[in-house]
Design brief:
Layout lengths: L8 H7 L2 H9 L17 E5 L5 E4 L3 E2 L7 E2 L8 E6 L6 E6 L5 E6 L9 E4 L4 E5 L3
Antiparallel strand pairs: 1-2, 1-9, 3-4, 4-8, 5-6, 6-7, 7-8
Length: 133
């Protein structure tokens, strides 16, 4: 992770809402169909709510029917990092912000072309910066 300085747990708790802290720092998950961005069609850049790093572009967003914002690719190489998640008796690939290490969601190999990937991301881990017309 390339965060400029090490941020303490207390600083994260001050910076984030309780729900953001739970998802981003404790690897939680918001309930399906409850997040602000699962059905959003607004053009723009989805940034990490914790550090502001650009993560996903709305042009790569699609409706997966899962209840979470889904993207077929990150905004660029190195925007996110992946890690094996063996919790809850499953093996999944967890996705984190490459800059600050915040947990974002998971990536699955059942997405649309051209990548075949589905980055299933918690809305609460994102901040949408709409594109100016």
């Amino acid at each position: 992770m390339s965060q400029e300085k090490e941020i303490t747990e207390a600083e994260w708790r001050e910076r984030l809402t309780p729900e953001q802290f739970h998802v981003c720092r404790e690897h939680g998950t918001e309930r399906a169909f409850t997040g602000a961005y699962h059905a959003t069609k607004t053009a723009g850049t989805y940034r990490c709510v914790a550090c502001g790093e650009p993560l996903f572009d709305s042009a790569a967003k699609f409706d997966s029917g899962t209840g979470w914002p889904s993207f077929w690719q990150p905004v660029g190489d190195g925007a996110v990092v992946e890690q094996t998640d063996r919790n809850y008796g499953m093996v999944r690939t967890e996705v984190h912000c490459a800059r600050c290490g915040s947990h974002l969601g998971h990536v699955f190999p059942d997405g649309p072309r051209p990548t075949g990937l589905r980055y299933c991301i918690n809305s609460v881990a994102l901040a949408l910066a709409p594109r100016a017309d």
